[in-house]
Amino acid sequence: MKIKNTLINARGADYKTLNEKIRAAVTANGTARITLDGVNGQRFIAAGLERHVAIVVNGVPGNDIGAFMNGPEIFIRANAQDAVGNTMSGGLLAVAGHVSDAAGYSMRGGLIVIRDTAGYRTGIHMKEYRSSVPTIIIGRAARDFLGEYMAGGRIIIFGIGSKIACGNYPGTGMHGGAIYMPSDKLPSRLPDGITSANVTTADTAVIESAAQDFARALGITRKELPSTKKTSFSVIRAASNRPYGSLYAY
Amino acid sequence: MCGIIGIINLDRRRFSGELIAKGLSHLKDRGNGLGSGYAGYGIYPDNPDDWCFHIFFTSEDARLKTEQRLDAAFKVTKKEPLPVKPMTSVKRPPLIWRYFLKIPAIRPTSTGSAEEREKKYIFALVMEINSSGEGAFVASSGKNMGIFKGVGFPDEMAEFYRLDEYRATAWTAHNRFPTNTPGWWGGAHPFGLAELSLVHNGEISSFGINKRYLESFGYHLALQTDSEAILYLFDFLTRIHRLPLEIAAVALTPPHWEIIDCLPPDEKKLYTALRMIYASCLINGPSALVLGFDSGMMGLNDRIKLRPLVAAESKSFAYISSEESGIVAVAREKLKKIRHPAAGEPVIFKYRPTKNQIKPVTNRDGSKTGGHQS
Predict the structure, then answer these.
(1) Which fold has domain A4-238?
(2) Cβ contact, residue pair B324, A120, below 8 Å
């Protein structure tokens, strides 16, 4: 079956007009793929969309791309700005570049794939519920406060081309979920309330699956990522069920 | 929220205010129409050696009183209402005047170089006017630069001030979303003092301690915003304490103690000293800023990166902005080196030295080396 492609020229359009065009294309019968050309800074692209549709973004999208979405697969062929996938529930956001701060903010489900570096506070307030487990996969590294206040979900960093997989204070305030990275690329200091450990067989399966998802989303081969057989990975988790129980109790 | 952007031509070629207005207008959603403004460097090539004051007056009476002060303190070479375009969307603008001023010979008892003495003189006058209670506020007070700001959206302020008629070697700009204080003409960014200008996105919880510290050195904060304090901290550190910008940036946004503890001994000593001496200069809270100065501009984030800031370069331009898309919107050449500066990491762009500006520098040991531009 031939996939129907809708081309939208975003050049100069404000975010409201652009999103109206996207929504009109999504609801039209048969549209399975939308290409947005000339995107530059328009916010809230595909926010709240609940249909399974592929959206290709040519240009730098504005803040909050894919916010609250549940279903679309978005491919960004440039860097992205702040709050990529803010509170998204399902679908895919793949970025062939760098993302600025707070990617996956309050993410509840779905997958975010970032080829290069993710900015500060990636995965802040991520959470999971039963089968809805959000995942963020990062090729190179993340900066400070990775997984801040993280309550669930998974973050996997491969550390490609970087001496260290994340900046200072990863997992600050974390009380759920898991952060994976190569053991030799762990930051030298970890905050109170979290622990790092060698991965288990189950953890390795998670990392292997992430590597395959990463390669598929960005159109690269699995071999370009570290092997789970040859690379030693560590996992960061909350130190207990209630690591901050006594924080404000005197 | 607020949006900030700066564009500099590294070869000192002047370019139209239309470009910065386009960039700031691209960030329109970051403000709410309660303040926008622009600072241009190199805009007055016909009067490059005069101090130029842009002043807001709430009344004719305020203007006359302030002009008495100016007449007493300076030789006024030229004065005129700043050319503006009356617009229905721009509500109740103040009286806005422009003065070109020369400083009379300063008493030889003052210390410092001639430039430092002049800047001290300007500082005293600006503080006097702003704190006089007479309804006059100095928007800018540098040489060959000026600040154009007020209550309105970016495109409205650019049109109101006829920004397309000015050409600058560097522009900075700000689109305001006031959160803690009213949006008013004097409280719009950029803030200016002598050659320094500042645009700031954020709010500083250290305002109280910064303000008290500055007041002990004669600063008066009259503009009802915390951003004014940041400008004065830079003035204090670079002019009075003669710190290089990079070090002044550390004083404002130093690393955390546990990070300092892990540094090599020399750096540890430096950062410890800076934190102890300049504890009251530390700015806490979300901040991204662009500081404009005679020879370039600097971008700086707060210590834990609570606001966005992106920098980029092209063949002859450099850019700093809240959003990468803002840079893309104004880039005339292919962008290279797109950078996302780390928390507290200053990004400094300076004009390249031109041939006749390269002078040999005498080293401490008496030898001479190729030289560089200050």
Answers:
(1) Pectate Lyase C-like (2.160.20)
(2) no
Tally of domains in chain B? 1
In the prediction, which pLDDT does B369 show? 52
Mean pLDDT (chain B) is 94
Average the pLDDT over A178-201 and give the result.
96
What is the ipTM score, two decimals? 0.95
The band of A28, judged by pLDDT with boundaries at 50, 70 and 90, is: confident
Assign residue A94 a region: left if phi > 0, alpha if psi is -120 to 50, beta otherwise? beta
Chain-chain contact of B29 with A120 (C-beta, under 8 angstroms):
no
Convert the pLDDT of each residue in B54-65 to its tens digit: 999 999 999 999
How confident is the model over B238-292, as pLDDT tens digits?
A: 999 999 999 999 999 999 999 999 999 999 999 999 999 999 999 999 999 999 9
Mean pLDDT throughout B36-51? Answer: 97
Rounded Cα–Cα distance for residues A148 and A122 (Å): 8
- Residues 6 or more apart from A249 whose CB is under 8 A from it? none
B370 located within any domain: no
Give the closest-approach CA distance of B148 to chain A in angstroms.
26
Q: Where are the domains of chain A?
A: 4-238
Beta bridge partners of A39: A59
Instruction: Please tell me if residue A81 touches chain B, with a CB cutoff of 8 Å.
Output: yes
What residue in A sits closest to B23 (Cα-Cα)? A41
Catalytic residue among B2, B52, B262, B281: B2
Q: With respect to residue B363, please indicate whether it lies within any of the assigned structural domains.
A: no
Q: What is the CATH number of the domain that holds B199?
A: 3.60.20.10
Q: Which residues contact B101 (CB under 8 A, 6 or more apart)?
A: B50, B51, B52, B53, B70, B74, B75, B76, B77
- Could you tell me the residue range of the domain that residue B185 belongs to? 3-351
Instruction: Note whether B54 contacts A: Cβ–Cβ < 8 A.
Output: no
Q: For residue B185, is it within any domain? A: yes
- Tens of pLDDT, residue by residue over A114-143, are 999 999 999 999 999 999 999 999 999 999
* Interchain proximity A98–B340, CB inside 8 Å: yes
* B328/A59 touch (CB, cutoff 8 Å), yes or no: yes
B262 is catalytic: no
Encoded tokens for A189: 């200091």
A189:B262 CB<8 A: yes
Q: Which residue among A62, A101, A167 sits closest to B325, beta carbon to beta carbon? A: A62
Distance of alpha carbon A46 from alpha carbon B299, whole angstroms: 32
Q: Do B326 and A189 touch (CB under 8 A)?
A: no
Closest CB to A81: pick one of B26, B262, B325: B325
Question: Is A213's Cβ below 8 Å from some Cβ in B?
Answer: no
Q: Is the dihedral of CA B153, B342, A175, A47 positive or negative?
A: positive
